[in-house]
């Protein structure tokens, strides 16, 4: 049994959604799963397994930031999870975005130390699994849900003292800033499993001000993102090892 996820192999499905907020994990399980069972509550990291449209699937809260989230990723893999899909929030970095928009992240700028430490500080481009990203875009299209597709930046800092960094990232085409994707993509690559990432724009941080989504808009965006992620999860196949 792992230290932080007090579960047994088989308690989690092979595909698992990963919100940062444990209460969002609870909401997803109670709203979308049939026969949802809580499989972890250690340290408040709520995790559930149930079925969605006849397919077994799990959801597990990771907390905020790559160091803690990486523990969750590693222990889920120890427990048999093969497809890990982050469903999180982000700060939008492009002026054409709106609060509540959905982003399919295909790579993560390693502005966090965790991803760099995992590869011995060698140059590295954390990249999402192509099949998961492709499936997310097509699932969104089938639902009539527009998405932004591209790179995001993963940072250690929520309150960033470098006031110009967001503008520099924006100019280089980075879509959003968040805190876990680069580490997820790196762990997934090293462990030969699949990692994907969907994000909803909860804040706009590029125009010199901080604009936050309302609670009602947040709930609606979570639902849109979750439906896309679950469509990907139930269609996921085992990864093919090189």
Question: Could you characterize the architecture of this molecule?
Answer:
This protein is α/β, with parallel strands linked by helices and 242 residues long. The protein has a single domain (15-234), classed as Rossmann fold, CATH 3.40.50. 33% of the residues lie in helices and 28% in strands. It has seven helices and ten strands. The protein has a five-stranded mixed beta barrel, surrounded by four helices. Helix 2 packs parallel to helix 6 and helix 4 (130-142) crosses helix 7. The protein is globular, with a radius of gyration of 17 Å.
The rounded distance between the terminal residues' Cα atoms is 28 Å
For the sheet with most strands, the description reads:
5 strands, mixed, barrel
Q: Which secondary-structure class do the elements indicate?
A: alpha/beta
Assembly state (oligomeric): single chain
CATH architecture: 3-Layer(aba) Sandwich
Estimated helix fraction? 25-40%
- Could you name the CATH topology? Rossmann fold
Shape: globular
Radius of gyration: 17 Å
Low-confidence stretches: 238-242
Q: How are the strands of the biggest sheet laid out side by side?
A: 5-8-7-6-9
């Amino acid at each position: 049994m792992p230290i932080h996820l007090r579960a047994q192999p088989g308690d989690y499905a092979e595909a698992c959604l990963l919100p940062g907020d444990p209460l969002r994990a609870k909401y997803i399980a109670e709203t979308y799963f049939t026969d949802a069972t809580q499989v972890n509550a250690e340290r408040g990291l709520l995790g559930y397994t149930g079925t969605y449209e006849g397919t077994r699937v799990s959801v597990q809260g990771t907390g905020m930031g790559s160091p803690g989230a990486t523990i969750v990723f590693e222990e889920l893999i120890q427990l048999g999870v093969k497809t890990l899909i982050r469903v999180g929030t982000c700060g939008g970095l492009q002026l054409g975005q709106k609060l509540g928009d959905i982003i399919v992240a295909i790579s993560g700028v390693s502005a966090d130390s965790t991803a760099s430490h995992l590869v011995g500080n060698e140059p590295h481009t954390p990249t999402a699994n192509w099949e998961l990203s492709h499936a997310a875009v097509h699932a969104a299209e089938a639902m009539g849900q527009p998405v932004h597709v591209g790179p995001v930046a993963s940072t250690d800092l929520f309150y960033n003292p470098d006031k110009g960094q967001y503008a520099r990232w924006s100019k280089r085409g980075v879509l959003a800033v968040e805190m876990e994707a680069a580490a997820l993509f790196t762990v997934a690559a090293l462990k030969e499993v699949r990692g994907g990432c969907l994000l909803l724009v909860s804040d706009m941080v590029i125009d010199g001000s901080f604009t936050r989504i309302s609670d009602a808009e947040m709930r609606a965006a979570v639902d849109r993102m979750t439906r896309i992620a679950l469509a990907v999860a139930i269609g996921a196949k085992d990864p093919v090892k090189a």
